Amino acid sequence: MIDYIIRRLIFAVPVLLGVSLITFILLNVVPGDPAVEMLGKHADPDAVQKIRNQLGLNDPLYVQFGRFLWNACRGDLGRSFKTGQPVTKMILDTFPTTVKLALSSAFVAVAVGLTVGVISAVKQYSFFDHASMIVALAGISAPIFWVAVVAQLIFGLHLKWLPISGYSTPKHMILPAIVLGIRFAASIARYTRSTFLDVIRQDYIRTARAKGLAERAVIFVHALKNALIPVVTVIGMQISGLLTGSFLTETIFAIPGLGRLSIWALSNRDFPLVQGIVLFTAVIFVIGNLIVDISYAFLDPRVRLH
Amino acid sequence: MEEKSLLEVKDLTVKFFTDDGVVTAVDRVSFDIKRGETLGMVGESGCGKSVTSLAIMRLLPSPPARITSGKILFEGEDLLQKSEAEMRRIRGNRISMIFQEPMTSLNPVFTVGRQISEAIMLHQKLSGKEAVERAVEMLRLVGIPNPEKRYHEYPHQMSGGMRQRVMIAMALSCNPKLLIADEPTTALDVTIQAQILDLMNRLKDRVGMSVLLITHDLGVVAETARRVVVMYAGQVVEEASCEDLFENPLHPYTAGLLKSIPRLEGEKGRLNVIEGSVPNPLNLPPGCRFNPRCPEAADICRKKSPALLEMGNGRRVRCFSRGSPPEEV
Questions:
Q1: Which CATH architecture has domain A96-252?
Q2: Complex ipTM
Q3: Measured on CA atoms in the order A37, A38, A44, A50, is the torsion positive or negative?
Q4: What is the C-alpha to C-alpha distance for residues A277 and A283, in angstroms, rounded to an integer?
Q5: Which of A169, A282, B57, B213 has its CA 20 to 30 A from that of A121?
Q6: Structure confidence by residue, pLDDT tens digits, A55-81
Q7: Residue of B56, B57, B105, B138 to mutate for A, most A C-beta atoms under 10 A
Q8: pLDDT per residue as tens digits for the range A248-276
Q9: Do B307 and B327 touch, CB atoms closer than 8 A?
Q10: Which fold has domain B5-84+212-263+271-322?
Q11: Which residues of A fall within a CB distance of 8 Å from B92?
């Protein structure tokens, strides 16, 4: 097991290198000079050159990339062009907020999604099944910015149950967590339903019934564990996605998380910050996938980690 | 004196209500199994054998399946009148079942031992530890080497033959009165097949149970059963003791089945086959259901259905040329 984890982490190195390289190239081919951004359009060219020298932007690209990698290995992702703060600190400052939002919406989504999915499958073609699958389809299809605004209008403006935006009390988290969780819950529900329907047609479910087990035990012991195996992948990937920040939700609800920081970094051409966030995102995904793979081994004895 | 029957199926009819129409998968099927006896049930795929067995267990998916008439008397009580809770106390306890596909009939995510002890704890009200001991004992009984270790293994760590042994251990763990074996050896290769049949025969005597052996393989029947019921397109077409059936098959379908067994001795030639294929149950031929494929079909066979004729000595046949009267509609 430990061997497996170490090996997977070693395999992650080329992935992270690739991600860094691609981001680095992309940032260098997009138009715009960070030095000009910092000093303003009408700045003195000498001052711009001075800044470019200071930032190392006049060095050959491979030197710049090498320097970035060397520093990144030591946990230093450079300083933000805009604020002058260390990028690592900016990311770590906003990350806990994103984690809180991600985990609360994931919690709601997994609980709701699994329950709805299992009931829909067990009561296939019932009213509940049809109704919940239509709602789930709507949940997946509706754009999140629209859902967010509608939720703000209804629960914030008209009913006045919940604050519309900001981030000061736990109450502020409820609306964004639900908005962010809707799509997640909907996809889990649909996925759970389809894998569950597949599982309850298997021969071993017939065996379990032939043993004299109550339907409850057949569903929750024999079927659920098998049905969960593919659902775990979906949950794992989605949580990784949520942990790297939700651009729209965080922006709409004015939550100072990683998503909003990314948008800010991009719109300000803050190269080190963008590069740092992308690398951080890649790390989160690599770890997320690793956790999914490890949890497989616990759910499915056929998967042995080699 | 007439032996008391353990299971009596009387006029069982099972219909499937599908989008394409109503299919009568099992049509007024009657047979009985005596205590300690092995009854073979033979027929091609889709003839209603498996549906009959699932009907006895009351495990048919409903919808689309519905038992529209008949009685299934088990130790004198009609299983069709039982509540679901009463049926659960019978399943896996007094009537057990093993299936065709050992590769997929065990749950892949639980150890085989757990799957056996689960049934034991459920029906025998034993403690966890006692159930484990009993499960290990069952594994030993079905000839699995090193049962204490194998108890903790998962199905994928075992071969098909081993898995079928596990299924048998599970089915017999509560000393059932009746074992329904639905094509138990079809998915196994020939040597393993013989071992499993031999195992079932030995355990049958040891446990003192009756067996309903469902198969399409007459060779399997010859080795295990005392009496045979032959089914075709949802109906019983012939019933006889094993010796009578092999020596003197009365129904042309049975005769065709016997002729299509490849033989080692005698002159070499092409294997006999029954021409044509099983009729579509949505669109059965008028008259006798076998008439389009029957070498002896006469005019009456195309117009009227033959009834099952009792010939005495437990022998029944459904064929006009053997003297069956037409069926009253």
A1: Orthogonal Bundle (1.10)
A2: 0.86
A3: negative
A4: 10
A5: B57
A6: 788 888 889 888 888 888 888 888 888
A7: B105
A8: 888 898 888 999 999 999 888 888 898 89
A9: yes
A10: Rossmann fold (3.40.50)
A11: 210-213
